[in-house]
Predict the structure of Geranylgeranyl pyrophosphate synthase.
Amino acid sequence: MLGPWPTAAEPVRPAGRPLTARDVARAVETELRRVLDENLRRTRDTDRVFAREVAERVGALVLRGGKRLRTAFAWCGWRAAGGSGCAAPVLRTGAALELVQACALVHDDVMDGSPLRRGGPAVHVEFARLHKAARMVGPAEAFATSAAVLAGDLALAWADDLLTETALRSPHGPRLYREWQAMRGEMVAGQYRDIRAQATGASGVADAVVVATLKSALYTVERPLALGASLAGADAPVLDALRSAGRSAGLAFQLRDDLLGTFGDPALTGKPADEDLRTRKPTYLFAVGRGLAEACGDREAANLLAPRGPSVSDDDVQRTRAALERTGARAVVESKIAELAAASLRHFDRTGAEPSVRREFSALVERACGAGAGCAGEAA
């Protein structure tokens, strides 16, 4: 066991008001800045060029917006399991989750060729601009891709370091670390299943659910809840209830993200709204739409929603969006989100958490999955 916790920002709240997940999400910003400052100092000692061109970009992405949902869910898991007192372990776990999220975003944008992230250029786009500005030789795309992969790796290394330190200082460290290990493996598996589905043209609902579960539901909600609960030494029934609640809410979150990827406003979501439409990404929304089109004999919609190559015209994008409305796919997904969110709240109630914690969790689920989610300028 290591010594006392490093100084961490305790959540601040007005006198007389109970501490909320939003208080914790704000406090983790301070913790992230402290952790990033420490890592940047070490990186500058290693190599100043790498620090300036890679490490500082990672830090800028981490601090450039984001809902901090994973931190808030970890807090709810901790409180549902009876956690109280010093919040430093939860804040540091939340900061580690935000760092691993940065890794996922950087790598995901490279694989998808996404130009925007959190309202600014994706990291690989920034590296392409650096290549041009510095008059480097060789293909800019190859340099940008390689550098972005390394930037994502650095974010993951920082996340692992922070979580490991937290586990070593916690009496429940082994349980915390086992949850973290499982989460990392699920993330990679989900990303692989995603690119494999695109490469093979898989377009069924079952495949879409597997990808959504592994790539998003587990590491966005279920594992953060379990990480927080592990820090409080949760018993098996509480953990089981939290896992079920997290699985349902996490799937609802991903389905909402699918809708935003097709119908959202880029000015509000911070990422392109037609990316899934152009790539025919095999999302749950597309799988449902194609099934409905085939069931009702709408050949035009079925063809538009079928897996295709990357060359999709602006007219096809508009027609595909209209087909998803016309077949009723958008309405079906909205209904499924509501169903999953309601199930999540029922599962969470089984934890026996205090009413205030249940209300916090309900507000979080609404924020992540509700009709207005992603429409208030927050980017994941």
In short: Residues 21-369 form a domain with the Farnesyl Diphosphate Synthase fold (CATH 1.10.600.10). The radius of gyration is 21 Å.
